[in-house]
Write a structure and sequence with these properties.
Largest sheet of chain A: 4 strands, antiparallel
CATH superfamily of one domain in chain A: YVTN repeat-like/Quinoprotein amine dehydrogenase
CATH architecture of chain B: Alpha Horseshoe
Helix content of chain B: 55-70%
Number of strands of chain B: 0
Helix content of chain A: under 10%
CATH architecture of one domain in chain A: 7 Propeller
CATH topology of one domain in chain A: Methylamine Dehydrogenase, Chain H
Order of helices and strands of chain B: HHHHHH
Strand order of the largest sheet of chain A: 1-28-27-26
Largest interface: A-B, 16 and 15 residues
Main location (chain B): cytoplasm
Pfam families (chain B): P16-Arc (PF04699)
Number of helices of chain A: 2
Keywords (chain B): Actin-binding, Cytoplasm, Cytoskeleton
Oligomer: heterodimer
CATH superfamily of chain B: Actin-related protein 2/3 complex subunit 5
Subcellular location (chain B): Cytoplasm, Cytoskeleton
Protein name (chain B): Actin-related protein 2/3 complex subunit 5
């Protein structure tokens, strides 16, 4: 597990390039900074300045090496590397509120942008006009879309929203692709069709993720719950209420295990058992450093009693690696099927890379199924 | 500066009602939710069977009901049971609840905090401490984010 502190400000969002040598992140302002790994240092090699508002989402397409960014200025830009510089292309999203999240589709011929205008803009490139065009998914979304994830078939899109629901939509664009084969979520997939809508959890849906096969979707909600739904004739939902603060981001690391992180500043493992359709808590994934236990002098004890009415010697210092909420999780190696490394960035301006093998051996009861 | 701190009661129109994008919660039926049976609970308290009274008081919570009287009545019954408990019995009572029960108990506790009476706050704080030990911060977050509350 290696922690690197990039900034003092929160990292709003980040994205990795294909070989994980470069990271693009937004330092809580209108710019995107790209850092390149050089041994154990990170050097800033590019600064992308085009947005007029905070950049809220970045996604880096691994194969075509294009970056899409979206921001509170209601715009999205697609950046392509020309020589040694990144050149932006404006995409008109036709929204009248801030854009909140953006994701390339698996085949990288479309991307989806979630916004505060209560709709999802699915954008594709129109060859004739040499221009990015977008289509809107509006019904039945009733509030801001906070997070998006694509199904491996390039058509289905999971969206978590502030109207307390996680939905799976079809984002089938006939201009760029063939009719999709039937999936566990349904067979008729016209554009904008709702294939699944969640019930049972209250609270804004902060993070959503499809599993590697696309048959399961997991979401983390603001009422401190995590839920997994499995597609089928009747979609089966399993949710787990937790005793921690709400989780902000969630991802599958194998078909049955999820890692999630949020306001508690450490990643947590959950295990899904499909036979029992139940989700269970797997363990905390942060190995706190063993700090030396100082003995308390009588004076300190009296002071504690005077100030805090307690003789407890616990200080109010977080033992986790991140010192503030973790806002985004991304998989580095192994994909969602057999993740070997994942990365977290947070409001403390730091980025941590977690190694799954090391975690498994360090935590005795941890079992990643 | 002085103008905007004056009373705004002259405003006759609630403009939020006319907003076509106004968020309306899903309507669920409020069928069987009349709240716990007050007489049964009273009998049990008089007999001294606190645990059963406690469990019965937490049944049938009027969560989906839009009738404030039903909610007030349920709150009063639960508060009676909570105040009738001895301090040492609180912890086993909380341990006997499942996850949803602890969340429901937290909802009633916070509802009780809203209208403090003579000694209700002290007892409620003890209940809060024990429920927090089992439910953690998550149960309090669920009280804050619940759309359908007791």
């Amino acid at each position: 597990m290696s922690y690197h502190s990039f900034l003092l400000e929160p990292i709003s969002c980040h994205a990795w390039n294909k070989d994980r040598t470069q990271i693009a992140l937004c330092p809580n302002n209108h710019e995107v900074h790209i850092y390149k790994k050089d041994g154990s240092n990170w050097n800033k090699i590019h600064v992308l300045k085009e947005h007029n508002g905070q950049v809220t989402g970045i996604d880096w397409a691994p194969e075509s090496n294009r970056i899409v960014t979206c921001g509170t200025d209601r715009n999205a830009y697609v950046w392509t590397l020309k020589g040694d510089a990144w050149k932006p292309t404006l995409v008109i999203l036709r929204i009248n509120r801030a854009a909140r999240c953006v994701k390339w589709s698996p085949k990288e011929n479309k991307f989806a942008v979630g916004s505060g205008s209560r709709l999802i803009s699915v954008c594709y490139f129109e060859q004739d006009n040499d221009w990015w065009v977008c289509k809107h998914i509006k019904k039945p979304i009733r509030s801001t879309i906070l997070c998006l994830d694509w199904h491996p078939n390039n058509v289905l899109l999971a969206a978590g929203s502030c109207d307390f629901k996680c939905r799976i939509f079809s984002a089938y664009i006939k201009e760029v692709e063939e009719k999709p084969a039937p999936t566990a979520w349904g067979s008729k997939m016209p554009f904008g069709e709702v294939m699944f809508e969640s019930t049972g959890t209250a609270g804004w849906v902060h993070g959503v993720c499809f599993s590697d096969s696309g048959n399961r979707v997991a979401w983390a909600s603001h009422d401190s719950t995590v839920a997994v739904a499995e597609g089928g004739k009747t979609a089966v939902c399993a949710s787990l209420t937790s005793e921690t603060l709400p989780l902000l981001c969630v991802t599958f690391i194998t078909e049955n295990s999820l890692v999630a992180a949020g306001h508690d500043c450490y990643p947590v493992l959950f295990v899904y058992d499909s036979n029992k359709a139940a989700l269970s808590f797997g363990g905390k994934l942060d190995i706190p450093k063993q700090s030396a236990q100082k003995g308390m002098s009588a004076r300190e004890r009296f002071q504690n009693l005077d100030k805090k009415a307690t003789t407890d010697s616990k200080e109010a210092v977080l033992e986790s690696v991140h010192k503030n909420s973790i806002s985004q999780l991304s998989i580095l190696n192994g994909g969602k099927a057999q993740c070997a490394k994942f990365c977290t960035t947070g409001m403390d301006g730091g980025m941590t890379i977690w190694d799954v093998k090391t975690l498994e051996s360090a935590m005795k009861d941890l079992k990643i199924v | 500066m002085a103008k905007n701190t004056l009373s705004s009661r002259f405003r006759g129109v609630d403009i939020d009602e006319y907003d076509e994008n106004k968020f309306v919660d899903d309507q669920d039926e409020a069928a069987e939710q009349q709240g716990p049976d007050a007489c049964e609970v009273d009998d049990l308290i008089r007999q001294g069977d606190m645990m059963t009274a406690f469990h019965i008081a937490l049944r049938n919570p009027p969560i989906n009901s839009k009738n404030p009287a039903v909610k007030e009545r349920a709150q009063a019954v639960v508060l009676r049971v909570l105040t009738a408990f001895k301090s040492s019995d609180i912890e086993p009572a909380v341990k006997s609840l499942d996850r949803n029960g602890v969340d429901l108990l937290m909802k009633y506790i916070y509802r009780g905090f809203e209208k403090p009476s003579d000694n209700s706050s002290a007892i409620l704080l003890q209940w809060h401490e024990k429920a927090f030990a089992v439910g953690g911060l998550g149960s309090i977050v669920r009280v804050l984010t619940a759309r359908k509350s007791v």
